[in-house]
Design goal:
Length: 258
Amino acid sequence: MKATSQRNAARMLHIITGSTIATYSYSPLAENILFQNVIKFIVIPLTVISGLWLWKGHYFKSFLSKNKKTFLLASLCFLFNTFILAQTNEPVKPKRWGAEISPVGLVVFSITQAKATYLINPEKMCRTEVGLGFLIQPQSTSKANDAFNVDGQYSANMLSIGIRQYFWKGLHVEYVSNLGRARITNSKVDGKDYSAFVIFSQSFIGYKFNVLKREKFNLFVIGQGGFGYAKNFNQWPEVNSNTSPIYGLGDLKICVNF
């Protein structure tokens, strides 16, 4: 991502989080416990980080470029310590309902993806969770979206249906099927616009880390890696028909169970 794009993304994040804090300060939502914790543990840290990046971002990038090995080692130690703590903390009382979003997709690819979830058997070790949500991807000419814009300017509106199977604590596999209409404008083959029914499936393995435990709700962060498969019907013309429809994926979700 270009430096200007990084700065624009940080500026937009800072504006959004600042507006959220203003809403918290001057509205009745300040009395809501859930909203209070979201502000304290998510919004305020993001506001501080984005503000520091806008102010001294060039120093951070210079430090990281000169100390890549140190930063990587520290990050791995932090993740390993977080993983160990997740196993040794007191067990979290499972709650059936949940809601989750994918902030990485929103910031990097402008993809809005959210899902409501329901835990079928919360008392069992091998729990099953089902989800229903949506995926909205507007047209974007950013460098990060080049993989989507291979045949033209890509956009999509989809229904997401998923199932997540837990094996041990937060360790799980997940399958998500995204179904809907996708659109290509200004095709790179013939300059025309096309619309097609698309199936975009995602398969993940990951871990659900507990971040905050409360009597009425629990806050989690879900880290996942896997692969995706995309297939469109009523095919639009492709620049390269030999391109594989399977590719690697990574995702980070923020989840609230209640």
